[in-house]
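FAQ: What does a ligand-bound record look like?

Like this one, built around adenosine monophosphate:
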Amino acid sequence: MKVITTPQEMQALAQTWRVDGLIVGLVPTMGWFHEGHLSLMRKAREITDKVIVSLFVNPMQFGPTEDLDNYPHDLERDRKLADAESVDVLYAPDASAMYPVEFKTSVHVHGLTSGLCGGDRPGHFDGVTTVVAKLFNQTLPHIAVFGEKDFQQLAVIRQMVRDLDFPIEIIGHPIVREESGLAMSSRNTYLKENEMEAALSLSKSIAHARMLVEKKETISPDQIKEEVRGIILQHSQCAIDYVEIVDQTSLQSCEQVTGESVLVLAVKINQRIRLIDNSTLIGN
Ligand code: AMP
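The answer part, i.e. the structure of the complex:
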């Protein structure tokens, strides 16, 4: 596996692959790989000829009081993990290569970015769409694989790709969980032993919501949200950023639960660790 650190070298290599008729896949990440990331790499490996994994902790998507400086980082650890998945290139540009001093552009997707995580993290999605647009231009993929864990991010990226005519197929990949049910996340490393039960309330409340929908045909989104909030707030360490049931494409609140409805949660544990999770309420 090759490690590339400059946009120029990355783009030149991707160009030669495309000229050779190879299908190029991209998995964008911020590193500190876990099974969730590795599952995206395996998916890309399965459906493309050349797999690029980008590793860039993007300062533009962090707010001033967020965890940019503490975000877990170990290039050598991640290099070994990506290599073991037969990734072709680990693309790890540094911030000055991505955002030179004269940088002046941002990509904004309207509407979809204003609520949920966008409401709690102003500017976050502009950082995401700007860096992903740059990564697309630097790596020239035919296919890019994203996790459904970051559910709103996936909807926003799909919208950007449609609106800006990127000739790229976006694949969403299911959430990988710990045996306990906790959705895997690089931020789980911040959790202390005595915060685990509180963290587990996200996946437990999702399981409860799915059970309610299965058992009661007429339950309303408001009743489900009420019960979900109740389960989470049993833990004094939890503060809810949002609990919503939204349509999976428009991200608008649902008035009824359908196969398109997704329960989305964001919870802060001890004011330090912001966890997100989501699930459809009917079907898989
Ligand atoms: P991150 O490094 O957290 O920015 O995530 C990089 C990619 O991995 C994103 O597309 C995430 O949605 C995806 N991802 C993160 N955690 C998981 C998970 N537990 N299961 C599946 N995909 C994930």
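Follow-up question: can I read anything off the structure? Yes, for example: The longest strand covers residues 238-247.
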